Please model this.
Amino acid sequence: MIDEHSFKAIYSYCESVSDSPSDILHELYRETHLKTLAPRMASGPVQGRFLSLFSKLVSPTQVLEIGTFTGYATLCIAEGLAENGHIHTIEVNPELNHISDKYFRELGVRDQITSHIGDAKTVIGGLYRLFDIVFIDAKKKDYSLYYDLVIDKVRQGGYILADNVLWDGKVYAGGKDATTKSLMMFNQRMKDDPRVETSLLPLRDGLSIMRKK
Model:
């Protein structure tokens, strides 16, 4: 198993040889660390560049993000939107909205992003459209529920991405807490679900990619 020091060194190397995020994204990442209690919840430069590239490959028209936080991942995904593309992003904590909204405006994509403040379980039911990409990065114990709510709202050939599915390694180390057990169940369920093709990447804290057949 790679120790924490080695992991940080590998991560830093990956960041150094990947494209750099924009100055505005750098500014947002810095403000997230200065003004929030859990800044590691932001996707960060390496995963952010992956999300940007993935979005550019798909060129989505409709995106759903479950868990905005301060909007870092939202803006990375927005870099690949089709010309008329739109992101619906859901955040339960209204106190974070002023940060994400500020940077949505600075990058000139405010009109392409609809911010929903509230419980995702309620908001998702009111979204009547087919999505090209769904990015799940909210309450970990509810991942299976989020999946159930969105699977029929994803077009054939569309994608569902789920973040933090390695949960600091607890999922393969046999963690006994409720969140770890929920993520273990979710990961196995994604592997077994015949409706999707699944690949779990050891990117940052684990990123699972499901393609709807």
User: Anything to note?
Assistant: Residues 44-58 form the longest helix (15 residues). The chain has a mean pLDDT of 95.
